[in-house]
Amino acid sequence: MADMLFYSLDILLHLDRHLADLLYYFGNWTYLVVFLVVFCETGLVVTPVLPGDSLLFGLGAFAANPYLKGPLAIELLFITLCLAAITGDSVNYAIGRYVGPKVFHRDSSRFFNKKHLEKTHRFYEKHGGKTIIIARFMPIIRTFAPFVAGIGDMSYRKFIYYNIIGGVSWISLFVFGGYFFGNIDFIKNNFTLVIISIIILSVLPGAIEYFRQKKAV
To answer: Is the distance from CB of 6 to CB of 51 less than 8 angstroms?
Structure first.
């Protein structure tokens, strides 16, 4: 029982490495599974550890594989994942907008001060657009950015505009990157290495910015 639970958890957290198993067991339901994974990875603050960039690249590669008997049509896959990414961020924003006024309501609190909420609001009104788009390409941060945008009461009209641009750009880059390049012999023979490289490159901008800020202090 414990082994089965551990295996299930490993598949969930490393779905990008178990796509063949996913396609074999779920068939056409794979669309729903990957929709839920991407939706949760972008829409729930508590699930930033779910696979993102590497999963999208792997799905694109599997959709292009002519020898794979699976349900992944690239057009339907693209639409499914775009909807998951956009609705996920929208739900995350809505949760943040609901939570913000209830938490940041005291002037005396050190961490949940009303002034912090006002500063966040001003920041997102000024820089929110590029923040929402850039965050899409940064694991962990993309899970928190829409939540904080909601807390900061960024106008929804502005949020949904940049949410759509960021979501479609993110899905397009990695899914079509996998579709067109994922089955090149070198990449196919070193797929695990490629996935690890994608993860490292995804985290790198955030790490560079962190050390830049730390050095500036």
So the answer is: no
The structure tokens 């490292």 sit at 200
The confidence score (pLDDT) of residue 152 equals 79
Dist. CA 205–CA 217, nearest whole Å: 19
pLDDT at site 69: 56
C-alpha Rg value of the chain to the nearest Å:
19
Indicate the burial class of 52 (C-beta count within 10 angstroms; 0-12, 13-18, 19 or more): buried
Q: How much is the pLDDT for 161?
A: 94
Domain that holds residue 28: 2-216
Number of domains the chain contains: 1
Q: Is the pLDDT of residue 45 over 50?
A: yes
**Whole-model pTM?**
0.75
Which pLDDT score is estimated for 32?
Answer: 92
DSSP string, 64-129: H-TT--S---HHHHHHHHHHHHHHHHHHHHHHHHHHHHHHS-BSS-SSSBHHHHHHHHHHHHHHHH
